[in-house]
Amino acid sequence: MCKNIDEKFMSEAVKAALNGMNNNEGGPFGCIIVKDGEIVGRGNNKVTSTNDPTAHAEVTAIRDACKNLGTFQLDDCIVYTSCEPCPMCLGAIYWARPKKVYYGSNQIDAANIGFDDEFIYKEIPLPYEERSIPFEQCGRNIALEPFQKWSEKEDKTEY
Q1: How far apart are the first and last CA of the chain?
Q2: Who contacts 157 (Cβ-Cβ below 8 Å, separation ≥6)?
Q3: Which residues are catalytic?
Q4: What's the whole-model pTM score?
Q5: Are 32 and 54 in contact (CB under 8 A)?
Q6: Which of 47, 49, 40, 121 is nearest to 75 (CA)?
Q7: Residue 26 region, left (φ>0) first, then alpha (ψ -120 to 50), else beta?
Q8: How confident is the model at residue 145, as a pLDDT?
Q9: Cβ atoms of residues 12 and 80 within 8 Å
Q10: pLDDT averages per 10-residue partition of the chain, 159 residues
């Protein structure tokens, strides 16, 4: 069950969603990121205003928080998002490694207003050639060069 403080932060995520939507920046989604009780990142959906299909609320909030914190990982941060994350945002959240995620509305609520991610979940287990957008491997032998160089690189930043 949500605590009062969590509902307070969720209301900030909802405000971000409403502000972005009212400013015609994108869909009705908002997200904030909190560290040590302070908001360190804010985002709202900006897909249509930036012509960027990756500009979902969680992604924009993660980018903002990482910029503000000077890091590429959100250790000890909490994500508050107005809606259950889509598959892309879920991946971004896992890469950012926060300690917890709170979400407001869910996948079904989003699908009911035209934001249905189910087709992506159905695509993931399909063989590459059966996906609605076909995937085909090409040039693996040349594409392995950066991986080889990375494994040999002595001054890399691990993540």
Answers
A1: 33
A2: none
A3: 58
A4: 0.93
A5: no
A6: 40
A7: left
A8: 96
A9: yes
A10: 90 98 98 98 98 98 98 97 97 98 97 94 92 93 96 92
Residue by residue, DSSP assigns the chain as: ---HHHHHHHHHHHHHHHHHHHTTSSSS-EEEEEETTEEEEEEE--HHHHT-TT--HHHHHHHHHHHHHTSS--TTEEEEEEEPPPHHHHHHHHHH--SEEEEEE-HHHHHTTT---HHHHHHTTS-GGGSSS------HHHHTHHHHHHHH-SS----
Task: Tell me how far apart the alpha carbons of residues 4 and 42 are, in angstroms, rounded to a whole number.
Answer: 20
What pLDDT shows up at residue 158? 87
Residues 22, 112: Cα–Cα separation, whole Å: 20
Tokens of 89: 């945002």
- Tokens (6 digits) for 159: 């993540």
pLDDT of residue 159: 85
Residues with Cβ within 8 Å of residue 50, at least 6 apart in sequence: 25, 26
pLDDT of residue 17: 98
Which own/partner pairs from 98-106 qualify as long-range (CB within 8 Å, at least 24 positions apart)? Answer: 98/33, 98/74, 99/75, 102/2, 102/6, 102/9, 102/10, 102/78, 104/10, 104/13, 104/14
By residue count, the chain amounts to 159
